[in-house]
Design goal:
With 82 residues, this protein is an all-alpha fold. The chain has four helices and no strands. The longest helix has 17 residues.
């Protein structure tokens, strides 16, 4: 087996959606999973993303008030990676 270059935390953040959608090529998926196995901060981020997707997938767009939508947009606009 060949050595695979370590994935950085920033790369993981950029790839998380593709990973969750099953869209990563095998080599990238392997790097992603290896990084999750060794980085507690990224595991926490990944778990938070899965929870967010699960919960927000149950929300209908009409159920959000304009204020709540604005707060969510602001929160993600100002978010910084670990």
């Amino acid at each position: 087996m060949t050595s695979v270059e370590q994935l950085s935390c920033q790369e993981l953040v950029e790839l998380v959606t593709d990973y969750l959608e099953g869209a990563l090529p095998e080599d990238e998926r392997q790097r992603f999973e290896e990084h999750l196995g060794s980085c507690a901060g990224c595991r926490k981020y990944f778990d938070q993303m899965k929870t967010t997707l699960r919960v927000t997938g149950k929300l209908a767009p009409a159920s959000l008030s304009p204020e709540a939508e604005e707060a969510l947009v602001d929160a993600f606009r100002n978010w910084r990676s670990p």
